């Protein structure tokens, strides 16, 4: 890859990508071969076929192969975009702006060089990579703007790293101090809860005693009021009995007064006249009934 101006590191990266692309290409070719084999095993079981049957089989095979090839092309394009994304991201970290020439992608001469490299030098390069990957190597130094920019970025990162380490030590000391304060606070809180528990227990005991005294006083008042109520009930019962006797006496007197009044009324002249009239009227009614019985036939 010296013809392309790559250093050793970038040459290895290009080889890794070519190895990845070759594995994907081999896998897709195997898939296409399996499509033909499946057609042979599933459809080519008879000795003769009509034109329509052959056309149908070829159309089906064409659709399958077209789908596989289209999928591979789409996947290759997306993979190249992801590769460019990695390169651009790394470049942006060092404030670089990469540019690409799309027309160089169809340079036949360069494409033939890549193909020739893949045919001849690819296996040799793989063997050299396997032998040399375990040996650490220093990156080549180039005196230029990029190298100076990298050195500045490395110095800035080292300075930032030192600041972060100092800040981390400060935070660790603050965390230890906070942890000690937390331990002391927990101990003080535990002691405070203990004292509060004792005080609360004493207060509860005092409150229980007060409630017991209150209940005893209420019970005494209830018994006193119960006795008073019993006496009042007894007085009420006696008053009720006396009232009943008085009512019976008054009713008896009223009945006697009614009888006396009736007796006096019967002794009056008006009552006697009314009685004589009623007697005469009854006799007349009886005489009329006798006459009617004479003239009316008996049933």
UniProtKB/TrEMBL annotation:
The keyword Cytoplasm applies. GO terms for biological process: negative regulation of protein localization to cilium. It holds the Pfam family Leu_zip. The keyword Ribonucleoprotein does not apply. Keywords: Coiled coil, Cytoplasm. Residues 147-291 form a coiled coil. Belongs to the LZTFL1 family. Signal peptide: none annotated. Self-associates. Interacts with BBS9; the interaction mediates the association of LZTL1 with the BBsome complex and regulates BBSome ciliary trafficking. Regulates ciliary localization of the BBSome complex. Together with the BBSome complex, controls SMO ciliary trafficking and contributes to the sonic hedgehog (SHH) pathway regulation. May play a role in neurite outgrowth. May have tumor suppressor function. It comes from the Eukaryota. It is found in: Cytoplasm. One of its GO terms (cellular component) is cytoplasm. This is Leucine zipper transcription factor-like protein 1.
């Amino acid at each position: 890859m010296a013809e392309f101006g790559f250093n050793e590191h970038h040459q290895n990266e290009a080889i890794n990508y070519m190895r990845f692309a070759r594995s994907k290409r081999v896998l897709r070719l195997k898939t296409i071969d399996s499509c033909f084999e499946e057609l042979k095993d599933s459809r080519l079981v008879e000795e003769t076929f009509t034109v329509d049957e052959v056309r149908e089989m070829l159309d089906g095979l064409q659709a399958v192969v077209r789908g596989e090839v289209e999928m591979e092309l789409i996947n290759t394009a997306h993979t190249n975009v992801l590769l460019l994304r990695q390169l651009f991201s790394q470049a942006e970290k060092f404030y670089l702006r990469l540019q690409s020439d799309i027309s160089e992608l169809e340079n036949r001469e360069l494409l033939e060089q890549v193909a020739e490299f893949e045919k001849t030098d690819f296996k040799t390069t793989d063997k050299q990579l396997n032998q040399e990957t375990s040996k650490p190597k220093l990156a080549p130094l180039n005196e230029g703007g990029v190298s100076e920019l990298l050195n500045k970025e490395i110095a800035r990162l080292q300075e930032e790293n030192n600041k972060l380490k100092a800040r981390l030590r400060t935070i660790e000391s603050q965390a230890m101090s906070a942890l000690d304060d937390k331990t002391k606070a927990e101990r003080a809180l535990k002691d405070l809860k203990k004292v509060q528990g004792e005080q609360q227990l004493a207060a509860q005991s005092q409150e229980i005693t007060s409630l017991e005294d209150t209940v005893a006083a209420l019970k005494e008042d209830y018994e006193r009021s119960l006795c008073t109520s019993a006496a009042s009930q007894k007085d009420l019962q006696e008053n009720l009995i006396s009232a009943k006797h008085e009512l019976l006496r008054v009713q008896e007197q009223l009945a006697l007064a009614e009888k006396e009044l009736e007796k006096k009324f019967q002794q009056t002249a008006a009552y006697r006249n009314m009685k004589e009239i009623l007697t005469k009227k009854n006799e007349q009614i009886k005489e009329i009934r006798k006459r009617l019985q004479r003239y009316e036939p008996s049933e």
